[in-house]
Specification:
This protein is an alpha/beta fold. It contains 11 helices and 6 strands.
Length: about 325
C-alpha cells in the first residue's frame, strides 16, 4: 500500500468537499489513530493485521486531506508508552515501520509530484539503528518539498518533547548562546520537535476514547478537539467531514482564544524585557532613576540584542538537529 493513494473523490464526496471549503478550513489536522487492536479483535484477525489496516487507512485519509486542501497532517504513530506492550507486538510495529519507510523511499516520484514533505517527530535514539537511518533518509529525501507536510510522531510523547525542549534551552545557556532571562514560553515552543509547523487547528481521536494520551499537549491548547467513536481502520470520508464541521462551528471562539493568547505572550515578553532593562539601568546608574527617553532607548536596544541572541541560538539548534539527521541518512542501507 502506497503512502498516498491516487484517485479522485466520487461525485457526492466532491460536492460535499466544495460545500465544506466554502467555510473556514483547518490547515493543519492531527490524528490519534486509535482502535487498530480493537478492530483486529472485532474481525478476529491478528493484531499485526489491525496495524496494517490502520496504515492503509492513513494513506486513504491523506488522499482526502489533499482533496480538502488540508496542507499539514500530524499523526500519532508510535508512543514511547508503546514500548511497554508485549515484545512481539512492539517488534511487529517496528518491523511494519521499517517496511513502510522503505516503501516511502521507493515512492520518491509520487511524493515529489504531490510536494509531500515527511517529518518524523520524536526521540529517534530510542529506535533500532537501521530504522533510525531509514527514517532519516526519508526526512532528508523529502526535505525540499513544500506543498504539504506529513508529521509522523514516532517514539514520541508530549512530556518527553517538552522535557527535551527545556534541555535544549539549558544547552543554549551553557553554550553562552542565550541568557537565562531569554527563556520564555515562546522560546520553548521554538525548541519543540514541531517547531517548523503551525499548531494544529483540529485534533481528531478515534475509537471513542476521550483523552489526549500525551499527544501534542503544548500545541493543542487552542485547537478544536473532536472525539469520534469509529475505530481508526473503519474511518471514512464522512467522519472527517463531520470533524471539520465541528471545527467550523467553533472557528470564531478558537481564533479569538488564539488572538488573546498571542497578545498575552507579547505583553509578558514586554514586561520581562522592561524588568531586565530596569535592573541594567539600576546597576549602571548607581541607583539613580533614568529618564523616560533613556529607558525607551535602552529597552529598544535590549530587545534587539535579545532577539539576535535567540535567533543565533535557534540557528545553532537547527544546525545540530539537521546534522544529526543528515549523518544518520548517509549511513542508511536500502535493502
Amino acid at each position: 500500500m502506497s503512502w498516498i493513494r491516487e484517485g479522485e473523490l466520487n461525485l457526492i464526496e466532491k460536492l460535499s468537499a466544495n460545500i465544506l471549503k466554502a467555510g473556514p478550513m483547518p490547515k493543519h489536522v492531527a490524528f490519534i489513530m486509535d482502535g487498530n487492536r480493537r478492530f483486529a479483535r472485532k474481525r478476529n484477525v491478528e493484531r499485526q493485521e489491525g496495524h496494517m489496516q490502520g496504515f492503509n487507512k492513513l494513506a486513504e485519509t491523506l488522499r482526502w486531506c489533499l482533496h480538502l486542501n488540508i496542507q499539514e497532517v500530524t499523526v500519532y504513530a508510535f508512543s514511547i508508552e508503546n514500548f511497554k506492550r508485549a515484545k512481539d507486538e512492539v517488534d511487529g510495529l517496528l518491523e511494519l515501520a521499517k517496511q513502510k519507510f522503505l516503501r516511502l523511499l521507493g515512492e520518491r516520484d509520487n511524493l515529489e509530484k504531490h510536494g509531500v514533505c515527511i517529518r518524523v517527530l520524536g526521540d529517534l535514539t530510542m529506535l533500532p539503528l537501521d530504522l533510525q537511518q531509514l527514517i532519516a533518509k526519508a526526512v532528508v529525501t523529502t526535505r525540499a518539498h513544500k506543498k504539504c507536510f506529513l508529521n509522523v510522531c514516532f517514539a514520541y510523547t508530549s512530556r518527553h518533547e517538552i522535557t527535551n525542549a527545556v534541555r535544549e534551552m539549558a544547552w543554549g545557556v551553557e553554550q553562552g548562546l542565550i541568557k537565562s532571562s531569554d527563556v520564555s514560553e515562546a522560546l520553548l515552543s521554538e525548541c519543540l520537535y514541531s517547531n517548523n509547523s503551525p499548531n494544529p487547528d483540529l485534533l481528531i481521536r478515534t475509537s471513542g476514547e476521550v483523552r489526549l494520551s500525551d499527544f501534542l499537549l503544548w500545541q493543542t491548547s487552542h485547537s478544536c478537539l473532536v472525539f469520534q467513536s469509529v475505530l481508526w481502520p473503519e474511518y471514512s470520508f464522512w467522519n472527517l467531514c463531520e470533524a471539520i464541521l465541528q471545527y467550523q462551528f467553533n472557528y470564531r471562539s478558537i481564533q479569538k482564544a488564539r488572538d488573546l493568547h498571542r497578545e498575552d505572550q507579547a505583553l509578558q515578553q514586554l514586561e520581562a524585557d522592561r524588568t531586565c532593562v530596569a535592573e541594567l539601568l539600576q546597576h549602571h546608574g548607581n541607583g539613580k532613576p533614568a529618564d523616560a527617553q533613556r529607558r525607551q532607548e535602552t529597552l529598544l536596544h535590549y530587545t534587539a540584542r535579545r532577539e539576535e541572541r535567540v535567533q543565533d541560538f535557534l540557528d545553532a539548534l537547527k544546525h545540530k538537529r539537521d546534522s544529526f539527521i543528515t549523518d544518520l541518512s548517509s549511513q542508511a542501507v536500502l535493502a
